[in-house]
Design brief:
88 residues, mainly alpha, elongated
């Protein structure tokens, strides 16, 4: 499943110019695949920071704008949770 996600992100990354959260996730998963723990942690921290920064600036009055950011946070927590399993 991780490799399918990584392949999808690779295709998306090469076909478009994006930055921020998605670039950090791509870097984190690539580093995880290559067993580069330090790079993985840095990229994941950047993704957390980018998401938190966006959450600080979003209107809390609308669930439409808050839920996508909350799901990003859940995804980051999931990646942190399965990283040790991948690195075994």
């Amino acid at each position: 499943m991780v490799y399918c996600l990584l392949i999808t992100l690779c295709i998306f990354y090469r076909s478009s110019n994006f930055s921020g959260y998605h670039k950090s996730i791509y870097s984190a998963l690539t580093s995880l695949k290559d067993a580069e723990l330090d790079s993985f942690e840095v990229a994941l921290q950047q993704a957390w920071q980018h998401t938190i920064d966006n959450l600080c600036h979003v209107s809390m009055e609308s669930a439409h704008s808050v839920y996508p950011l909350l799901s990003r946070l859940q995804g980051l927590a999931d990646i942190e949770g399965f990283a040790p399993l991948i690195l075994r």
